[in-house]
Target: Reticulon-like protein
Amino acid sequence: MAEQAEHKEESLMEKIADKIHFDHSSSSSSDSDSDTKSAAAPVKPNIWRLFGREKPVHHVFGGGKPADVFLWRNKKISASVLGGATAIWVLFELLEYYLLGLVCHLLIFTLAILFLWSNATTFINKKRPHIPQIHLPEEPILEIASALSIEINRAFSVLREIASGRDMKKFLAVVAGLWVLSVIGNCCNFLTLFYISFVLLHTVPVLYDKYEDKVDPLAEKVMQEIKKQYAVFDAKVLSKIPIGPLKDKKKV
Model:
């Protein structure tokens, strides 16, 4: 009996030791697995994005319906908007139609149809057509005017800051941009320029959103080269130009 009791105790101790060893091995294996997973998890590099953006292109355009139109999320609406702009450009630019004449002809056509329809209902014993009352709400118009005034005042403040001679880099960038716009303006009129900008807004963002992983590295190389050339130009030319007494007065 004593031998059987000792044998049972030994077997029980062996089972407990095996269980402890299994728990320890499983915990160590899980720790090693987690360590290997954490070691194998790739660290996301800081990818350079065009214009220093951190959000997707859809969020840059506001993330609403205008962004959906520009990025062709709804192809029917985007195609209809671009087709309407193309029709307007063809009508006014290629066919040389005038805006005032078009508006007058559309109003004549609409009034003639409604007038004939209203008089024809008396002969066929039907109700007259319901002509809705058109009323422009004040709030959206005031919001648009307020937004335009804010942007115009901001542009004036930027121009004033540039004209004060504090930032040579910004001054050169604005002058170069205005010169490019003047060259483009001499080649085409305002309507064609507006149409080209509208087409670019409907093509360039969607292409960039599709191929941004290929465009961003090339843009990074171009920006680095521009910075190198600007540093050379700054060292040879801009640093030798006297900035003026504006900063000296502020320091005093």
User: Anything to note?
Assistant: The CA atoms of residues 27 and 49 lie 43 Å apart. Confidence is low (pLDDT under 50) at residues 1-6, 24-44, 246-252.
